[in-house]
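Private note to self, pasted from the team thread so I don't lose it. Backbone tokens:
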């Protein structure tokens, strides 16, 4: 063990990063390593003793065009962290996801010639789009921690130091996962059919995507009135935002919608809702991996600012947007992106998954992918990080 206390800076920008960050902090402590953590974190990390200089929501901006509106604020946050770590440096900086912010922060650390090792936990999607970023990553990042084995292989082609550490959820979530238990955990009627609607966890996502899922729910209700809809809210602000929108819909539909708010620091309500649902309709993002590991039949969707979408469409290098399809290398789940993301098409895809045969086939495919992720040998992220400074 080292004979001095380590100091590690961590920056996360959303719930999934907060979950990874909290687990990383616990892993250091469980291995008896004396570490002080600071930077930008969410409630899960703060509950582990993390010192957050700014609220996590300050980085919760989606889309290229949308980021431009908040660019001055983001630069101020970056410069504030650099100033703090110039005066009182951390030993290692770990950027968890949020690549647009964290890669710029790591670049600034290198430009200031601070003696801080830089780690990017969760590979930026350079294998999918903007592949030229790999050269900037090589210059500013000392180690990339990859969740999937194909990412490590990609970085090795460019001589970027990378370690496959696996996705913690792959081992955390069981291969056998009875839906009845999940329904009971939320106090739901076990033999009731539920459809999960997840328009995202950010304010901007809910503004853009919640009307889409509720319009689809209205269409489904008219044809299949026996179904109930579950919507998770990660905090009170998001709950109030969704409640305000629900008031614009007919009372009959509102009676079929259960809005479930997160309780506790771990932000598990989204996962619990998906686990308890017979069908999941969710915004494309990291939550699709959770749904995959829960083996729940699903359809994914997303809409961006029109200009952001045009730029992304031009830059993207792979045929799929969702993690399950990217991992499988083929279409396993339906993706409704931009102009295809309509209430009519979403309702139709949900209706397809009401078929027992169709849903069972997809669930078996997701289970097979879960087993594949578990079969690959992965490294311990704590060990990989400590190897950067020769601390064991």
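Design output:
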């Amino acid at each position: 063990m080292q004979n001095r206390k380590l100091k590690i800076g961590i920056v996360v920008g959303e719930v999934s990063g907060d979950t990874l960050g909290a687990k990383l902090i616990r892993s250091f402590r469980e291995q008896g390593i004396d570490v002080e953590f600071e930077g930008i974190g969410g409630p899960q990390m703060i509950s582990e003793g993390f010192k957050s200089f700014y609220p996590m929501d300050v980085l919760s901006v989606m889309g290229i065009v949308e980021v431009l509106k908040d660019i001055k604020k983001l630069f101020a946050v970056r410069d504030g962290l650099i100033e703090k770590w110039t005066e009182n440096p951390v030993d290692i900086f770990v950027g968890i996801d949020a690549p647009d912010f964290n890669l710029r922060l790591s670049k600034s650390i290198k430009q200031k010639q601070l003696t801080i090792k830089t780690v990017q936990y969760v590979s930026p999607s350079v294998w999918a789009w903007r592949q030229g970023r790999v050269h900037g990553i090589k210059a500013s990042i000392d180690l990339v921690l990859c969740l999937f084995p194909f990412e490590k292989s990609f970085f090795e082609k460019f001589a970027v130091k990378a370690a496959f550490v696996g996705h913690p959820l792959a081992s955390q979530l069981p291969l056998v996962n009875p839906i009845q238990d999940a329904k009971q955990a939320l106090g739901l009627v076990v033999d009731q059919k539920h459809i999960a609607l997840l328009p995202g966890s950010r304010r901007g996502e809910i503004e853009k995507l919640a009307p889409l899922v509720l319009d689809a729910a209205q269409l489904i209700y008219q044809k299949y009135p026996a179904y109930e809809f579950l919507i998770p809210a990660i905090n009170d602000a998001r709950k109030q935002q969704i409640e305000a929108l629900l008031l614009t819909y007919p009372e009959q539909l509102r009676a079929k919608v259960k809005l479930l708010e997160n309780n506790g620091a771990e932000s598990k309500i989204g996962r619990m809702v998906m686990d308890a649902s017979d069908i999941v309709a969710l915004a494309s993002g990291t939550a699709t991996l959770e749904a995959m590991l829960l083996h729940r039949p699903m359809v994914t969707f997303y809409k961006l600012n029109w200009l952001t979408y045009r730029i992304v469409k031009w830059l993207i290098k792979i045929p799929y947007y969702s993690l399950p399809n990217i991992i499988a290398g083929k279409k396993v789940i339906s993706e409704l992106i931009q102009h295809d993301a309509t209430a009519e098409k979403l309702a139709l895809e949900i209706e397809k998954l009401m078929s027992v045969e169709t849903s069972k086939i997809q669930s078996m495919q997701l289970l097979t992918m879960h087993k594949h992720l578990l079969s690959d040998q992965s490294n311990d992220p704590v060990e990989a990080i400590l190897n950067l400074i020769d601390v064991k």
